[in-house]
Amino acid sequence: MADTGAESTSVLNATGEDVVGATNGTGRVPATPEGMVVAYSSLVIMALLPIFVGSFRSVKHHKEQKISFQESGEKPETMSSKDAAMFPIIASCTLFGIYMIFKVFSKEYINLLLTVYFFALGVLALAHINSPWIAKIIPSSFPNKEYHLIFTQGKGDKKEEIVNYEFDRKDLICLFVSCLIGLWYGLKKHWIANNLFGLAFAVNGVELLSLNRVSTGCILLSGLFLYDIFWVFGTNVMVTVAKSFEAPIKLVFPQDLLEKGLAADNFAMLGLGDVVIPGIFIALLLRFDVSMKKGSKTYFYSSFLAYFLGLVATIFVMHVFKHAQPALLYLVPACIGVPVSVALLRGEVKELFSYEDHSEKTPDPAVSAISGSATGDKKAQ
């Protein structure tokens, strides 16, 4: 979060990590206490919603992946411990690269390209989220027909499939509605349209991004914990990029909504990185709860509560000290510490760190270092 004045807000950086701070460099009237409460309460709710929905959707998605794996033998893509360890380094290089691009080129042209790019991504993300419920509200008398789009390259033995997509007319209606929202965002950049895209990105991220071991999640979150602290406290790169980067990879809510209504323009913001990154870890814990077959979701709800408290702590510290605060400084210890503490109390640390979504795969060395591989445990029994 960035500190450039007296008014509280959040600033999003280029890699999706959130920074919380204070800004009033545009001469706007400072937000009222009521307006700030409404704005930050709304942001917290919008952050919790995609994590909750996306986590339960991830359970269904991973079941489908498992069936597909058993039928085709094609392993789903997952993040390894090495990938998790390298991610903060890659993110740092990306962040600094974007920072240099904004220094060299006009941000108006860059943001124009970003608008086109995120229009396409946002439409697809919205369509994926909206398709099930739009299909339910369309009457059964609707003349639906199915289509199959296949696009290949090459001939004979060298023929390679590029696109293989099945859809129907209900999907086309959903795509049309999503395009209208995309045009609204592209033309007006309205904060409601931004949030629709942002929520869709967040739900899809939590649902589809595969983090299948707790040890991998701990490595990823720990690395980004250090990454966030360095780029917020150590340099101005993150804040500079965040203030220049115009794309629906943030959730926003106006602090002057009570005064100006839907035309409000004094926003508090929360980066999607601080929703999706902890969210995929929390979704993993829900899948672990389901795998235990005990009828409870203790790890999911405890980590979900920890995320909520960590987010509230971030906003509180930002508001009290009026200074830049990396959100993951508070979210990571909460999201890792609480479920591990629960596992210690329940005597399930070994089960927690041995769990993986697709047990047919080779055990991760990081798991073996903590509690022994799952395969070795079975042999010992």
Describe the structure.
With 381 residues, the chain is mainly α. The chain has one domain. Helix content is 65%, strand content 10%. The protein contains 14 helices and 7 strands. The strands form 3 sheets. Strands 1-2-7 form a 3-stranded antiparallel beta sheet, with helices on both faces. The protein has a two-stranded antiparallel sheet with strand order 3-4. Strand 3 and strand 4 form a beta hairpin. Helix 1 packs across helix 9 and helix 5 packs parallel to helix 9. It is globular. GO terms for molecular function: aspartic endopeptidase activity, intramembrane cleaving. It comes from Acanthosepion pharaonis. Its EC number is 3.4.23.-.
Topology:
Layout: E1 8-12, E2 18-22, H1 33-72, H2 81-104, H3 107-137, E3 146-153, E4 160-168, H4 169-188, H5 191-208, H6 214-234, H7 237-244, E5 250-254, H8 257-260, E6 267-271, H9 273-292, H10 298-321, E7 325-326, H11 328-346, H12 349-354, H13 365-371, H14 374-380
Antiparallel strand pairs: 1-2, 2-7, 3-4, 5-6
Helix pairs in contact: 1-5, 1-9, 1-10, 2-6, 2-7, 3-4, 3-5, 4-5, 5-9, 6-9, 6-11, 9-10, 9-11, 10-11
